[in-house]
Design goal:
2 copies of one chain form a homodimer.
Chain A: E1 19-25, E2 32-38, E3 41-45, E4 47-49, H1 62-67, E5 73-76, H2 77-82, H3 86-91, H4 95-99, E6 105-108, H5 111-115, E7 121-123, E8 128-131, E9 138-141, H6 143-153, E10 157-159, H7 171-189, E11 198-203, H8 209-222, E12 226-229, H9 238-248, E13 258-260, H10 266-274, E14 279-281, H11 284-290, E15 293-296, E16 299-302, H12 322-326, H13 329-337, H14 341-367, H15 371-382
Parallel strand pairs in A: 4-14, 5-6, 6-10, 10-11, 11-12, 12-13, 13-14
Antiparallel strand pairs in A: 1-2, 2-3, 7-8, 8-9, 15-16
């Protein structure tokens, strides 16, 4: 008899209601700590979620992801709908089973990816008609189908289908896009979800305070399990990102988790935690790892640079990751220059560990009421060595 | 103070003399079991050695390599001399420390790679003058420098510099090449080696019995710690490979390990163990893994084929590797088609485990005096499903 290893859907994971509790608060900023429960485990906030678009955090086994300390990862409904198909994943008991990740999963709706298709997609009141970026095949994604896809994937946290205009966009464009996103949010909220699955609303409105305010009022009235700030980190100047988060975060319901989508650098995360954000995701640690740009307490490091040829020290002598416990910068430089696959694996382990450790440090500092001092000290050290590519 | 993690050369590995003992013998073939001791551990034979040309078994951490059951891996003196440099590796305490592999390492001389450079290399009595395949820089490799490179790498088993003509080559060409290889073997044997480091001689002579015989007589007279058959699996028909091994293997000293370089498929290994070979290496399990061709007890499997889209079974339901314990064919097909790095990692774990498990099965069968039955049964099952690419 052939072993069927992935068809035991949901075993060992009874549905548990999603809920969020605040556990600490900084005195001199809006930084806060909390935790939320899901059917696949508890997550401490502020949290960084490694991105696993296609059902894998690029380059890492789930065991390696777990060893970085990451408690929750991201998937992408658009990508997984197209390939291998949410229906297929559902037949295998959902995304957790399919990819062998037993912890919580948040799935992004893919609205950003579909919008980015440009001429390959057409938007109507009903939803998006679009052509696959993989094979050009035609598809439709409505708020209802987007929810059904994420339901099939078995995500612990589902994101509403939204429209995400890039920066710059005119006030009128953003206003009309926001209105549609809000009507879609209402439709998403009316779909059926299995017990224990959370749904987050998304605030759009670009960098326009009046639109942000209007959007947040509407999604707060609809009522979600958490609230995201979307439409940021899409090309706007850093000051406008920070100003918008500063303005918008306190308008979001304080008793629910606040998720800043697609952000960002260590500096961005430190800034935005101070503005009251609880959840982050970004491709930066994983993508930069593949490009040989590594994060250390003393700043960024470009591993191919000649200065590391004879460097016997670990990437970061304060890091306890597998890579730093076992390998010199010299070896990592060799692997990267020789285009070895192991370079990607080891670099990704390190960068994800760096982000996860940063969040752990942030949570400690907030709980001790010392967030300002932690942030200042971290940034002073981090800015000692912002290295550029020597070419 | 900066942590220097890789500068403790040789700690915990006192030199231990290389020696080989026969432990078992099949009755109806020349198959035999044995073991050899090195300063970095003991290896059971017949053994398959995964290839780690550039200081990494492509795609695997050393922990993963160890988990496949592999006891010894290969490095390549030519590649490591060019990049990152044997001198650099020596400063880090040798290849074991540099790449974080604590088990035995055999290094190939790189003679085959240099010969394959064609117009980029010129051969004289003294050695090779060649241009790097990486950057065109000029280099010289003599028997003496080749030994010095492998000494610097700290290999447990060092291979003589040889010349390896491809098939077909005329008798005269092979004869004159063999004569040079034998003069070089003598020069290699006269170099100084650290205690505990073994040196293997290489039999050349193509598919010509008289040349094979002459070569083996000379290298046996020089005296080495082990003997390799080189210059095979270089384009000759399978029958000629088997005939040559059948002829040459029994001429090699029986009390030393016999290593068939660069061979081969599971069928080749089964055939050549029966002819008296103890050691094998081949890029097939690792390279095929990267191309999505996977080995199972029931034959080869091309993971991208559509038939695996909904296949919830593991690659091989008799395999206990990490990949087979945790993933369906459907997920592995998804990863491969989506060009995810994890596809390479998981496929390589499986294929190397397959080869290592095959050798374990072979050793058991030989010890039980049942090698013929094992081989027949293995091949019957293995030939049920020799799958081709469906395109």
């Amino acid at each position: 008899m052939t072993r069927q290893i992935l068809l035991n859907a949901g075993e060992g994971h009874p549905a548990r209601p999603f809920n969020f509790h605040l556990t600490g608060k900084d005195h001199s900023s809006r930084a806060r700590t909390g935790l939320f429960h899901t059917s696949h485990g508890t997550v401490d906030t502020p949290v960084f979620m490694p991105v696993g678009t296609q059902g894998t955090v690029k380059g890492l086994t789930p065991d390696m992801v777990r060893e970085t300390g990451a408690e929750i990862i991201l998937g992408n409904a658009y990508h997984l709908y197209l390939r291998p198909g949410h229906d297929l994943i559902a037949r295998f008991g959902g995304l957790h089973k399919f990819m062998n990740w037993s912890g919580p999963i948040l799935t992004d709706s893919g609205g950003f990816q579909i919008f980015s298709l440009g001429a390959l997609r057409k938007r109507t009141e009903e939803g998006y008609a679009f052509q696959s970026h993989i094979d050009g095949s035609s598809h439709v994604m409505t708020p209802e189908t987007c929810m059904a896809i994420q339901e099939a994937l078995g995500s612990d946290i589902t994101m509403c289908l939204d429209e995400c205009p890039p920066y710059p966009a005119s006030f009128n464009e953003v206003e009309s896009s926001l209105a549609l996103t809000l009507r879609w949010a209402d439709r998403c909220a009316k779909t059926r979800r299995s017990p224990g699955r959370a749904l987050f609303g998304i605030s759009q409105g670009g960098v326009h305070p009046s639109l942000r305010k209007r959007g947040i009022e509407v999604i707060s009235d609809i009522g979600f399990d958490g609230y995201a700030l979307g439409g940021l980190s899409v090309g706007e100047p850093k000051e406008l990102l920070y100003e918008t988060v500063d303005f918008a975060a306190p308008l979001l319901p304080a008793e629910k988790p606040r998720y800043l989508m697609g952000v960002g650098t260590p500096e961005d995360i430190l800034e935005c935690v101070g503005l009251g954000i609880d959840m982050f995701d970004c491709v930066m640690p994983t993508r930069n790892a593949r490009n040989g740009m590594l994060f250390t307490k003393k700043g960024k490091l470009v591993i191919k640079n000649a200065r590391y040829r004879d460097d016997g020290s670990p990437l970061d002598d304060q890091c306890g990751c597998y890579t730093c416990r076992n390998y010199s910068r010299s070896y990592l430089r060799h692997l990267f220059i020789a285009r070895e696959i192991l370079a990607i694996v080891l670099n990704t382990i390190h960068n994800v560990t760096f982000y996860v450790s940063l969040m752990r440090g942030i949570r400690s500092a907030v709980r001790e009421g010392a967030y300002g001092a932690f942030r200042k000290s971290f940034l002073e050290t981090y800015r000692t060595n912002q290295e550029e590519d020597e070419g």
